[in-house]
Design goal:
It contains 14 helices and seven strands. It is an alpha/beta fold. The two termini are 43 Å apart.
Amino acid sequence: MTLTNSQFDSIQREYDAAQLKNRQLLEKRRQEVFARCPAYEEAASEVASLSVRFGKRMLAEEMMTAQEAQSAGEVTSAEAYHEALLTLSQKKERLLLEAGFPADYLEPLYDCTDCQDTGFAHGRRCRCFEQKIINLLYSQSNLQKLIATENFSSLSYAYYQGEDLENFRKAVETSLSFIKHFSDDCQNLLFFGAVGTGKSFLSGCIAKEILDRGFSVVYFSASALFNLLSRYSFEAGSKEMLYKTYEDLYNCDLVIVDDLGTELSNSFTNSQFFTFLNERQLAGKSVIISTNLSLEELKTRYSERIFSRLTGNFTFRKLSGPDIRTCRNI
């Protein structure tokens, strides 16, 4: 996915924090070694001094003959320099072991050795960066608790029979197709039917799969969605605080609106709902809606142009049967 600036900055701050933490830990280890083994500190100083001297030697090469450099006790070639470094490195390792430390105790520390805590390896995003994106998307989706239990691993057909079973199978097939083609095409789904028949469950199943593929998903109950739109429009003092959420509403890859019809309906909410649907469609961004309303109730409750937008741009799937939540508790 394409990260927003704020999302990228949030992930970058995690890498900055990891680098600082590991530098501080390494320095703590270094001071511990120096305190227990002063000879190691001397060897480390020798390495630094050797590097400085050789650097100066290279810069002044045209001003000093090899014989002059040799008489001054300087290494006279890159080969000799590396041999001297190797000797000192072996000495440092021996001193560490004799002092009771592991040989790699003062090696640089990284949370991710592939990218060395930069986020990029081999000219591309590191696997740890991709995982951080997914973690960030999960945290911003409002879905963590829902999809912990409501996902395809817990899908069951056991509570459906006859026509109800056929409806659920079709809804599952449509959900799987939605996931499969999500990155190829703008799709919209509307699950409708009685309470507890699996509408929110399937929305959660889809959300988890989409999030795991690195796309952004935001979940709203209908009442929360229209409350956001209302506050953003009428509460000047809240506008800055709500800006990020409002932007996500229009820019994230998938918005899920649960329990459409439970919000207070009036001319303002109808107007905002149409704008939301229209802007998402123009941007090629997907929407999933679940509602307990029947198609006739949807047509009656919302304006004709909203109902036309829904029927023209959404795939409808009806779910029917008993309230599964009640069945599970029997």
